[in-house]
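FAQ: What does the model actually see?

It sees only this:
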Amino acid sequence: MSSVGEPSGRDYIPPQIDTNRPSHARVYDLFNGGKDNFEVDRARFSTRSRSSRRPSR
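And it is asked to produce this:
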């Protein structure tokens, strides 16, 4: 339930959430198959998962 005067709904992002910088918590959520992440978090996850792969022999 939201407070009086606050927008509600699935697409609402509170103003204190910085969606321009990746969050460790949101990247971890993405790693675990979560849905609470933004494009910047997915980009960080993609970069990290590529750099952590070991070359095959």
